Known about the structure:
alpha/beta, 46% helix, 15% strand, 2 domains, 16 helices, two-stranded antiparallel ribbon, globular, 394 residues
Amino acid sequence: MTVIAYLLYGDNQMYERELVFSLLSMLRFLKDQNESDSSLSISVISDREREILTHLPTPLPIEQLIVSQGELDGWMRGGAYRHGVKPCALMKALDVYQESVILIDTDTYFVETPLRLIERVSSTSSVMHRFEYWIQDEPMWQPIVERVGDGIELHGITVSRQSPMYNSGVLGVDYSQRSLLDRVFELLSTLYDWSPIFNVEQFAAGVTLHQWTNLLTSDDIVKHYWGYEREFVHSQINRSLMNAKTPFNELMHHPATFAVGYPRQPIKDRLVSKVRGAMQGWNDRYRFAYLSYRTALFYASKDREYANIWATIALEEARMAVGVLDGGSGSGSGSGSGGGSSGAFENNTEFDRVGLSLQRDFEQFQPEAIGSLDWLSGEVKQRWLQFWEQAASG
C-alpha cells in the first residue's frame, strides 16, 4: 500500500481549490478503481478538518490527518522557515501510516495515472518531481558553494559544488527509509543557518535521497506549475470548480476540466516579436515582455482576465529587462522568458535610448494612452503608470 498525501494549512482558499483540482486530476484515472483491491490511499495533512473534502465524491476515501499549530510552528522553525514543513509532514505521515508515502504539493495535477507513480517508490528507490540544476550553476547558492567547495560531510550527507537540486513538488519514500528524513531536516537546518535560501529544504531532500536511494523523477506523471503559469492555472481552476454547473462527481469525466496551462500566443505575434527582437538586439527577457504585451492586446476583446494577466507579465518582464524594479510587486520568477542579461539590448544602449524604445514598443500602455483601455484593470494601469514614472526618472 502507498499513501498519496497532500499538505494544506492556513486560510488561503486558493490553496484549497488547488488541492481539489489536483485530487480530481488524479482520481479521474481511478474512477473505475475497486476500493477493495486498491494499491493506494489518499491523505490530506491539515491544521483542521476541511469540509470541502467531506463533500467530494471519490472512488477512494480521503483521510484527513490533523496536526496542531504547535507541530506546524516546530516544523517551520518557529515560523522562520515555512518550507521546512514539507519533510516534517512527510515524516508525520510515515510514522502514522508506516507505509510508502508520496507527498505532493497542491499546485500540481496528474497527466498520467498515479499507479505509475507509486511504482517508483520501494525499499531501495524514492521519487521527487524533477532534476533542476547543479548548485554550482545557480547564483543564489554561491554562499553555500563557496563554503562546501569540493565536498564536506554534514549529518552523513556529502555536499559539494557538484551536488544536484531536485524539485520537491513530489517527494516520496518508503517507510523503511524513514530515518533519512531526520537527516534531511538536520541538513536543511544547518544549511539554512549558513544562508537562508528559500529552497534549501528541497535541496536537502534531493541530495540525501540521491545519495542513499535510487532517486527517480516524476514530471512525466505530475505537472507542477509555478511562476507566471500559476496565474493562468488559478484562473482556469476557478472557472472549472467555482463557476461550473457540473457536479464534482461528473467533473472527473470531463477532459476539458483539466485543459490548463498557458493560453496560446498567436503565431503572428510570436513571429513579429522574434523578428523585431533579432533586428534590434533584444535579449530574451525584453522579447518576452514585448510578446506578452502583444498577447494582452490579442486577448483584450476575448478574455479580459487573460489579457490582464498578460499585461502584468509584460510589466514584470519589462521591469527586469531594463532594471526598473518594483519594490513591492515581486519579480515574476519562473517566467517563460528564458532569462537574459539585465538591460533590454545586448549592446548596452544608454538608458535614455531604452526609454524611447519602451514608449514605442509598449505604445498602448503609455501614460497618454493607457487610460482609454477599458479592459485593463485599475490596478494594472496604476502599476504601468508607476513604471513610466520610474523609467523617466532614470
